[in-house]
Amino acid sequence: MADSDIATPAVIHRADYAPPAFLIDTVALEFDLVPQRTVVRNTMRLRRNPDAVRAPRLELLGEQIEFVAATIDGKPHSAVQAHEHGLTIDDVPDAFELTIESICNPEANTTLSGLYVSSGNFFTQCEAEGFRRITYFLDRPDVMSTYTVTLRASKDEYPVLLSNGNLLEEGDLGDGRHFARWEDPFRKPSYLFALVAGKLVALEERVKTGSGKEKLLQVWVEPHDLDKTRHAMDSLIHSIQWDEKRFGLELDLDRFMIVAVSDFNMGAMENKGLNIFNTKYVLANPETATDTDFSNIEAVVGHEYFHNWTGNRVTCRDWFQLSLKEGLTVFRDQEFSADMAAGTQDDAAAAAARATKRIEDVRVLRQMQFAEDAGPMAHPVRPESFVEINNFYTMTVYEKGAEVVRMYQTLFGRDGFRKGMDLYFKRHDGHAVTCDDFRFAMADANGRDLAQYERWYSQAGTPRVKVKTAYDAAARRFTVTLAQGYGESSAAARETQQGPLLIPFAIGLIGKSGNDLPLKLEGESAAGATTRVLEFTQEQQTFTFVDVAEAPLPSLLRNFSAPVIVEYDYSADELAFLLAHDSDPFNRWEAGQRLATRELLSLASRAAEGGALSLDDSVVAAFGRVLTDASLSPSFRELALMLPSETYLAEQMAESNPAAVHTARQFVRKRLATALKTEWLKAYDSHRTPGAYEATPEAAGHRALKNLALSYLAELDDAADVVRLATAQYDAANNMTDRAAALSALLNTAAVHGDDTIAAKSLADFYQRFEKEPLVIDKWFALQATQRGSAARPTIGIVRSLMAHPAFTLKNPNRARSLIFSFCAANPAQFHAGDGSGYAFWAEQVIALDALNPQVAARLARSLELWRRFTPALREKMRAALEQVAANVKSRDVREIVEKALG
Ligand code: TRP
Ligand code: ZN
Questions:
Q1: Of all protein residues, whose CA lies closest to atom 10 belonging to ligand 1?
Q2: Hey, whose CA ends up nearest to atom 5 of ligand 1?
Q3: What is the three-state SS of 491-505?
Q4: Which ligand is nearest to the CA of 270?
Q5: CA gap 628, 40 in Å, rounded
Q6: Ligand nearest to the CA of 268
Q7: How far apart are the CA of 699 and the centre of ligand 2, in A?
Q8: Residue nearest to atom 3 of ligand 1 (CA)
Q9: Which DSSP state fits 719?
C-alpha cells in the first residue's frame, strides 16, 4: 500500500476520533544501549479491540527508526512492510504475540524527543509522540499496557540503569556489560514510558506514606550536582504529604525517582515512577538559585508528582483532552504552592501569602494566555484541531485550563470539589478519559447540571464582562448588571462561540469607611458572607442587593474568580481607595494595576505622538502609601509596586507600539523613583536579610521588596547611591537572588548613564565565579539579553556578540532560551527596534533551530504571532521576517505556527 494512506494527515480533528483497532496488553522491551546504534527488541501481546470496527491490517507508528525483523507468535511473518511512518502488517490473527527488532541512533537525536544522549547519558522523552521514535507502536494515549523493560549497557559507562516501576533484577553480563530489569505494574500509555542510563548519583530518602508503607525516594543527578538536590527532595516529600492530606491520594509505587537532565525541551515530565526533569527545576542551593528558582522547583516537583494520579492513573483518551490532565494538575500545583506559602501562619498572614501566589498566577495568565487568545493560535481549552500536538502545550491548555478547574471549586467549595475528585477516581481509575468525564463527575457529585459549563472547554477567546451599577438611596438597593461577550476577538475565537458562559462572579461591596458591607441579595432573609459568588449565566443579568445603607464601591471579580476581562468605569480616586482598603488582597493589587495601566496607556499614546509626559501627584501618593504601609506583607508590596510589563501594556494599545510603551513606563518608573527616593532608600535598608540565607516565603518577600527598591533607585539621575548599594550588595551577597538583582541594577544604571565600566567588571566576575554552573551561566546570558539598550549601544549588538561566546550553543534548549528567547520575548523595546534588526535575528535563529530541534524552534517562532496588532512600520518588517521563515523551514512544528500567523 502507498505510504500516503497511513501518513499522518495535515490537520487532525477532534471529531475524527475513533477507538484503536487493536489493543496492546503487555509490552516487553529490551534495549542494548549504544550511543550511535541502540538495538530495541519489543515483544507485545496484541488483540483486536472488541469496541472498534474490524481493521484489515495492523498499522504501527514508527519514526526515524530502522526496521530489522518481526515475528508473530515466534514465527517470521512475511506480510510486514516498513515505511517512513511505521509498519504495516497484513494477515494478523485476532490475538497474537508480536516481536519487532529495530535500531535507532540516540547520539544523533538533537530533537530531544524519543531516546537521546545528553552529557554522555541516555534519556527518553515520549510525550506526546516520542515513543514511536523508539519502537513501532500504537503510539496513542488510549492504548494502555503493562511494561517490562530490560536494559543492557556497558557497566563502566552506564553504571546506573533506570526505568519505570520496580526493579526486578540486575546483574553482570560478563562482557563488560550489565543489565537491569524493571517492571511497572500499572497499565500506562506509551507517552509515560521512560528509561535513563548513565553516570548518575542519587540523594535518597525513605518515607512512610499514609497507609504505613515505606517508600524509596531518589533524586538522580550528575555527581557534581549532588549538593543541589536537597530542595527538590524536600519538595517531593511535601508533595506526597499534601496530596494525601488534601485529596486522599497516596503514592502507589514502592519507589519514586526524579532524574535531572540538562538537555530538555520543557520543564519536566511525569513518566510513571521515573519523572525526568530539566535541571533548571531540580538543582538549587542558595549560591546558584534565586528565590524564584526555589519556588519554581517546588511547583514543578509538585506538578509532576501530582500527575501520578491526574494524568497517569487517569489519563487522556486523545490529545485533544490534554487539559484534562494539564489544567487539573496546574490547578493542583497552584493550590499546593499556596498551601505551602501559607504554612502554619495565622489566618491573615496565610491569606496574604495565598493571595501573593494567586496574583503571580493571574499575572502569567493575563500576560501570556490572554495574548494567545488574541492571536492566530487562539484555541479552546479543548482544541478542535491541530497540525502538531507539540504546539498545543499552551498557556490556554495549561493556565486557562487550570482556571476552568478552579471555577468548579469556586462554585462548589473545597468540599464539593473534593467530592467531585473522589467520584472522578472512583469512575475512571485506570482508564483514558475525556474532559467531559471530569465535568460529569463534578456535576454528579454536586447534584448539578453543568451542561452550560462545557462552553468553557469549547469556546476560544477571552470573555469580557461589562459591569454597570446603580444605587437607589431611598430604596437602599444596589443593582449590579453584568453583560458578557467577547468583544473584538480573533476570527478563531469568534468561530467557536456558542452562547453565554456560567461565570462565577465573586463580588463585595465596600462602604465609605473602607469596610465590607453586609450582603443581602433580593429574596434572602438575612445577610450572608461579605464576598458572594454570583452565578452569572445569561448574556445579561441584574443582581440586586437590598438593605444597602450607603452608596457602596463594588469590589468586582474578587480573587479573580473567572478568567475574564472586567470592564467597569472606576475613577482614579476609587481605584486609589480600593488599593488602600479592599479586604480582598487580590483586588487591592488589581486596583493598583488598573490605576497604573490607565496612566501608562495614556502616557504611551502621548509618547507615540511625541508629547510631553507628566504623572499626577495623586498617583504617586497612592503608590507611596503602599510602599510605606507596614501592615502589608513585603511580598504583596513588591507585587503592587511592580508596574505592568511592557508586553502587557503594548497589547492593550489599539496599535502596539513597544517604543512608546517603553518611554512611558520608564518615565513612570523614574518619576516614582525620584518622588519616593527617601522611601525607597528606607525600604532598601529595612528589608535587608542579614545572616544565613533562608528560603522561607517571608525572607523571600523581604528580598523581593528590597531588590525592587534597588531597581527603582537605578532609574535616578544621580547614580551614586545605587552604584554604591548595588556594588556592596553584589560583593556581599550570600545568595543568587541578591547577587543577580545587584548585577541587574548595575546593568540598568550603565544603560541610563552610558557608562558600563562597573557593570562590565561585575559581569566578568559573575562569569568567572559560576563558570562551572550551566544554570547560572544561563542567567548571565539572560541578564545581558534583557538589559536596556540605547541608540548608541543597542542590545542586539551585545546579543549577536554573545552568540559567538564559547559557552553559547544552540543545541542546549536552556542556553538557547537564555540568550535568544530572553531577547526576543522579554526585551520588547529592543527586540522591536524600528530598523527590524530584532526580526532579522529572530528569523535566522528560528531557521537554525528548526534543523536541530523543531519543538524549541516552534516556541521561538511564536514571538511574532501578534504581528498584525503592531504599528504599520513594524508590521511590515515582521511580515517579511515571517515570510522568510515560512520559505526556509521544514518541520510541521514551525510551519504550523508561521502559516497560522501569516494565514
Ligand atoms: N507533560 C509535561 C508536563 O506538563 C510536559 C511535557 C509535554 C513535556 N511534552 C513534553 C516535557 C515534551 C518535555 C518534553 O508536566
Ligand atoms: Zn503537566
A1: 127
A2: 269
A3: HHHHHCCCCCCCEEE
A4: 1
A5: 65
A6: 1
A7: 29
A8: 269
A9: -
Cα distances from 507 to residues 137, 245, 551, in angstroms, run 52, 30, 15
Reported as a single tens digit per residue, the pLDDT across 724-769 is 999 999 999 999 999 999 999 999 999 888 888 999 999 999 999 9
Q: Is 129 in the pocket of ligand 1 (CB under 6 A)?
A: no
pLDDT (average), residues 255-276 = 99
Q: Going by C-beta distance under 8 Å and a sequence separation of 6 or more, which residues neighbour residue 57? A: 88, 89, 90, 91, 92
**Phi, psi for 252 (deg, rounded to 5):** -100, -5
Task: Report the alpha-carbon distance of residue 516 to residue 583 in Å, rounded.
Answer: 7
Nearest CA to ligand 1 atom 7: 127
397 Cβ inside 6 Å of ligand 1: no
Q: Is the CB of 326 under 6 A from ligand 1?
A: yes
Ligand 1 atom index nearest CA of 128: 9
The answer to whether the CB of 265 is under 6 A from ligand 1 is yes
Contact 162, 183 (CB under 8 A): no
| Distance of CA 108 from the midpoint of ligand 2 (Å) | 27
Under DSSP, the state recorded for 616 is -
- What does pLDDT average to over the chain? 97
Cα of 307 to ligand 2 centre, how many Å? 7
Q: Which atom of ligand 1 is nearest to the CA of 269?
A: 2
User: Which letter does DSSP use for residue 53 in this model?
Assistant: P
Residue 407 contacts residue 330 (beta carbons within 8 Å): no
Dihedral angle at the C-alpha atoms of 108, 112, 114, 115, nearest 10 degrees?
60
Assign 7 a pLDDT band (cuts: 50, 70, 90).
Answer: low
Q: Where are the beta strands (DSSP E) in 201-292?
A: 201-208, 214-221, 255-261, 268-269, 274-278
Separation of CA 312 from chain center: 19
Helices (H), 695-755: 697-713, 720-732, 736-753
What is the CB-side half-sphere exposure of residue 445 using CA atoms within 13 A?
25
Question: To test the ligand 1 pocket, which listed residue (118, 129, 131, 266) has its Cβ within 8 A of the most ligand atoms?
Answer: 266
Residue 4 pLDDT greater than 70, yes or no = no
CA of 688 to the centre of ligand 1 (A): 38
- Residues 192 and 127: their CA atoms lie apart, in Å, by 7
> Whose CA is closest to atom 15 on ligand 1?
269
Q: Determine what percent of the chain is predicted with pLDDT higher than 70.
A: 99
Q: Please tell me the predicted confidence (pLDDT) of residue 9.
A: 73
Amino acid at position 853, single letter: N
Cell of 103: 535500531
Question: Does residue 897's CB lie within 6 angstroms of at least one atom of ligand 1?
Answer: no
CA proximity to 855, closest of 139, 7, 125? 125
DSSP string, 151-212: EEEETTT--EEEESSEEEEEEE-SSSEEEEEEEEEEEEEGGG--EEEES-EEEEEEEE-TTS
Sign, CA dihedral 202-206-210-213, equals: positive
State CA 589 to chain mean position distance: 22
Return the exposure string of 804-819: e unless at least 16 CB atoms fall within 10 Å of the residue's CB, then b: eeeebebebbbbbbbb
Mutate to test the pocket of ligand 1, among 110, 111, 127, 331 (most ligand atoms within 8 A of CB): 127
pLDDT at 490: 67
- How far does the centroid of ligand 2 lie from the alpha carbon of residue 303, in Å? 6
For strands 385-386 and 477-485, give the pairing: unpaired
Question: Which of 88, 94, 106, 93 is closest to 31 using CA atoms?
Answer: 106
Q: How far is it, in rounded angstroms, from Cα 42 to Cα 63?
A: 15
The residues annotated with a catalytic role in the active site are: 304
Q: Are 259 and 274 in contact (CB under 8 A)?
A: yes
Q: How far does CA 586 lie from the centroid of its chain?
A: 21
